[in-house]
Every structure is written in C-alpha cells, then in structure tokens.
Write a structure and sequence with these properties.
Blueprint (H helix, E strand, L loop, with lengths): L1 H12 L5 H27 L1 H26 L9 E9 L37 H8 L2 H8 L3 H13 L11 H20 L3 H7 L1 H9 L9 E3 L5 H13 L14 E10 L9 H13 L6 E9 L22 E9 L5 H37 L1
Antiparallel strand pairs: 1-5, 2-3, 3-4, 4-5
C-alpha cells in the first residue's frame, strides 16, 4: 500500500501540461487506434499472423508519412540553413600585402570600400547618390535631391491640429518649423547615405550600367541587394555584437555601426532571364549537380558617429564615421540538414516494410508447400 501511495503522489506532482500531456495523448491514441486494429486482425488470423500484418501496415503508413514530410519539408525536421561567419577583415580587403591584418584570399577581388569623390575611379567604390545624379532619370534625381518641405510641414500640421490643447506633444509655430527642418535634414542624411546594395534593390539598371562601364570592378563577386542579403546581414550583426570589437560594449557611444554593401559569390547558377528555355535549362542544370557549390557573402559595416538622443523624438538616422575603417564580414552558407531526418525515417521504414512483406511472402510459400504436400499425401 505504501508503494501505491508513493506512486500516486509522484504522479500527482507531475504537471500534465505541454510535453507530458502531448506525449500521453499520442501514446493513448496510438494504443487505441492501432491496438484496436491489431486486436481485430489477431482474433481473425491468429496472434503471430495478425501481429505481422499489423506491423507491415504500420511501416507502410510510416513510409508514406515520412515521404510526404521529405517532399514538403514538414514533420520531423533537422537543422535549418544558416550563415556562418568564416572571417573578419578590418580595412581594405583588396590590399594583400598587409602583414599585420592579412585578408582571406577570397576577398582579393573586392574593391576598396572607401567611396570615391568622383565617378570613374577604379581604386575606390562609387557612391550611390553620385550614380543616380549622373545616370539616373529625372524622377530618380528629384527623389534624392529634392526634399519636399511643404509636404513634411503639411503632415506635421495635420497631426498637430488633431491634438488637444493641453497635449504635451502639441507644437507652436516656431517649433513646427524646427521639426520640419529636423525631418528634412534626416531625409537628406538618408539620401546621402544610400548604399549600392540599396540602389540595386530599387534601380538595378543603374548598378548594372556602373559595372558595364568599368566603374565597379568586382571580379568573381556580385553586388547583392540589401533584401537578398537580409539573413546574412542579421547573422553578421549578431556576430559583431558578440565579438570583441566594441559593438557589444555598454558604452552607448561605441556600440553602433552602419551596414554598407553586401557581395555574393558561388552557389548554384541563377537564371539569366525568365524565358521558358532559361527556366527549364537552369532547373535541369542545378538539379543535376551532385553537390551544392560553396556560397559566400561579404557584409561590410562601418562604425557610426554618436548623437545624443532627444527625449520624445525618434532616434536620428545613423551616419558612418569616416575616420573608422570598414569591417568586412565573410560568411559561408551552411545548408544544414533540414530534410535529412525525414529522409532517414523514409528509408528505415521502407526497409522494415520490405522485410515484413518478405516475411509474409515466405510464410505464404511455406503454407502453400505444406498444403500441397498434404494434398499429394
């Protein structure tokens, strides 16, 4: 009786929530559903044959379930693809004779991250806003160089008029003009800080023209848009926050940086266009590759200047500190093993299913041999 009470107390102390309740639900459901089928088959065919049939059915169902998991990437999943930091280089990665801080050999083709004063200089990186001013359309130029202070003022005035008279956010006439000037200045800073990766996301024809004219020499690298490199940028930012570079320090004046450009190299070839033949040929070529080529991305960042935040206002846009060097973060794509567990379950269940079918077939042959022997006798 003491043992029973101890067991009851132990069960009462367990919280039957979350994992435990789910585990008990699965075990009970499996026992009822599969056990009832096994009981019916066993009563009609016998214990051994019924158990073998039930086991064959379970493995057959597991094969189909795991195959669907593998096909759609659901169910039992493995490690997801991630970007892994391989190296960090501070300064110009195209300078190979830097003995104190030698860059990885793969970074030799990257251009000097220092922006050029004028376009056409191959020893530095063209500035995105200069590219727009030289080769952009009239609408693109107006969007970057013309700041509509009237629209900003109208928006602020409409918001200010909707506030109550005693609302602390309500501004006076002079304060409204100061706010308009502040927002216009922030918009100018954002326009001046436009990167080539951001420009390629909104106007890829301009960055392609810059490369065609030879103003941007990338070698084997490709300029990547900020949107396409979003996951790599997040991984690089997390790594820099934990690295011993001052970005993760408690000093608020030294723990911020600005993401500049991103460059990509390797991986499976992308489609050149959306034509039918190009789509079919690219699919066939990439599917026939036995292994995935190494895929690299370089994310470049630079420390930002510090500006004290103003109470009640949004943080000002970050500006790069021209006195700080550019940091290049080299990342490699780890494809993970997202579908590997479900594929292994499919293969293992398939082998067990075939083994159970072979046992059933062998038993049928033995029964037939015995019946034929009794008939001839």
């Amino acid at each position: 009786m003491g043992s029973v009470l101890a067991a009851v107390n132990t069960l009462a102390a367990i919280s039957f929530d979350n994992e435990i309740r789910g585990l008990l639900t699965v075990l009970l459901g499996s026992a009822i559903l599969m056990g009832s089928v096994w009981l019916i088959i066993s009563t009609n065919t016998g214990f051994r044959l019924g158990s073998l049939i039930a086991i064959s059915a379970i493995f057959g169902w597991t094969v189909m379930m795991a195959f669907i998991w593998s096909l759609y990437g659901i169910g039992l999943q493995g490690a997801r693809p991630t970007w892994e930091v391989q190296a960090i280089h501070i300064g110009n990665p195209s300078v190979t004779d830097n003995e104190a801080n030698p860059p990885p050999e793969i970074l030799d083709d990257l251009p000097n991250p220092i922006t050029c004063a004028t376009l056409g200089d191959q020893d530095c990186l063209p500035k995105a806003i200069q590219v727009v001013r030289v080769m952009g359309s009239s609408a693109q130029k107006a969007e970057l160089d013309s700041i509509d202070a009237g629209a900003i003022r109208a928006e602020i005035t409409a918001f200010n008029d909707a506030l109550a008279a005693d609302d602390p956010r309500k501004l006076s006439g002079e304060a409204i003009e100061d706010e308009v000037q502040r927002l216009a200045n922030e918009q100018r800073i954002r326009n001046e800080g436009l990167t080539l990766s951001e420009l390629k996301g909104v106007a890829p024809e301009l960055t392609d023209e810059v490369e065609r004219r030879g103003w941007l020499e990338l070698g084997d690298w490709n300029l990547e848009t900020t949107q396409a490199a979003g996951e790599a940028i997040t991984a690089a930012s997390d790594y820099l926050g934990n690295a011993n570079l001052g970005f993760g320090a408690t000093d608020e004046q030294s723990n911020t940086f600005v993401v500049l450009d991103a460059f990509q190299q390797g991986g499976k070839p992308e489609r050149l266009n959306n034509g039918v033949w190009e789509r079919v040929s690219n699919k066939v070529i990439t599917s026939a590759m036995p292994r995935h080529p190494a895929n690299y991305t370089v994310v470049q960042v630079q420390r930002s200047t510090y500006e004290a935040p103003v109470a009640g206002q949004a943080p000002p846009p970050a500006q790069v500190d021209p006195n700080e060097p550019v940091i290049s973060v080299l990342l490699e794509r780890n494809l993970g093993r997202f579908r590997l567990p479900s594929i292994l379950v499919t293969i293992g269940s398939g082998l067990l299913f075939l083994a159970s079918l072979l046992m059933l077939h062998t038993r049928d042959l033995e029964v037939r041999r015995r019946l034929e022997g009794e008939g001839s006798g």
